Prior knowledge:
By secondary structure, this protein is of the alpha+beta class. 28% of the residues lie in helices and 34% in strands.
Amino acid sequence: MNAVGRRRKPKSAVPSALDVVTAFFDAIEARDFERAEVLLSAENFSYEGSIEQHDNAADFIQSVSRFGAILESVERRRIFVDGDEVCAILRYETSLEPIESVRIAHWIRVERGKITRIESFFDARAYASMFEQGP
């Protein structure tokens, strides 16, 4: 009981899917990749995107951390929650042409307070053009 005699509402031992995903994007925007990795399942994580795939959290975070050098901000345009699944529609602002502003939809699965799967949908043409080889 608290000081006025009311029972405190017990805190859930496992954070909600929205709390986990919000903390993950907070960490990415802060370029705190160690904190971001803690929110991913160490045993059961996968990522699938337009450019690359990963089957473990460490490889995914290593890839994301390379993006951190050019990341300026993460605009959260809309986040939808359906149980343990979250759809986040974001805009990443970067310092690199031709990808100064990238719109991405992430479909994220959270289990027992950890992100187990991220699937990302975005137009990868600008990324592909950066790696095209001329004649």
